[in-house]
Amino acid sequence: MHTTSSVSMPPPWALYAWPAIFCQASIKRKARFVHLGTRVTTSGSRGSPCAGQTVWSEYLDEGQAGLAWDWIQIAEGVVAMANPLCVVTNLRLVGEHGEPLAARESALHLSRMVCQLPWQDEVWRVVQAA
């Protein structure tokens, strides 16, 4: 298993223990998440693709927000989210009137946030170093 990080990388599931950060889903803003680290959990030996988790964080006025998800290598130099609807986070997305969004609706917004990040480049860099 190989891990890289510029800051100590928490386990992806630990983001649930971070204080909840409430964020309005409809606000258009550029995410400023930074890469905390990527863990390779499957080395890509014969018959199994390379896979792992990656963790990203952003400091907001309300506190530190985190995103983490599983990834899998689908071709040489190509990684993808293992499940685009399964992002671990301490962000609690709310609607225009402060009502919490349903898990399904939140998952779509979180997936869009992930798509804004250069995460594939970071993950591939770690895979190549492993």
Helix-strand blueprint:
Blueprint (H helix, E strand, L loop, with lengths): L1 E3 L16 E4 L9 E10 L6 E11 L2 E13 L2 E4 L6 E2 L1 E4 L8 H13 L3 H11 L1
Parallel strand pairs: 2-8
Antiparallel strand pairs: 1-3, 3-4, 4-5, 5-6, 5-7
Question: Could you walk me through the main structural features you see in this protein, from its secondary elements to its overall organization?
Answer:
The chain has 130 residues and is an alpha+beta fold. 18% of the residues lie in helices and 39% in strands. The protein has a single domain, classed as Nuclear Transport Factor 2, Chain: A. It contains two helices and eight strands; from the N terminus they run ββββββββαα. The strands form two sheets. Strands 1, 3, 4, 5, 6 and 7 form a six-stranded antiparallel beta sheet that branches. A two-stranded parallel ribbon has the order 2-8. Mean pLDDT is 85; it is low at 1-7. This is DUF4902 domain-containing protein.
In short:
This protein has 130 residues and is an alpha+beta fold.
How many beta-strand segments? 8
CATH fold name: Nuclear Transport Factor 2, Chain: A
What is the beta-strand fraction?
Answer: 35-45%
Total domains, how many? Answer: 1
Going by helix content, strand content and strand pairing, the class is alpha+beta
**How far from one another are the termini?**
8 Å
Query: Percent helix among the residues?
Result: 10-25%
What CATH architecture do you see?
Roll
Shape: elongated
Report the CATH C-level class. Answer: Alpha Beta
Q: What is the gyration radius calculated from CA atoms?
A: 15 Å
SSE arrangement, N to C: EEEEEEEEHH
| Assembly type | single chain
Protein name: DUF4902 domain-containing protein
Organism: Ideonella lacteola
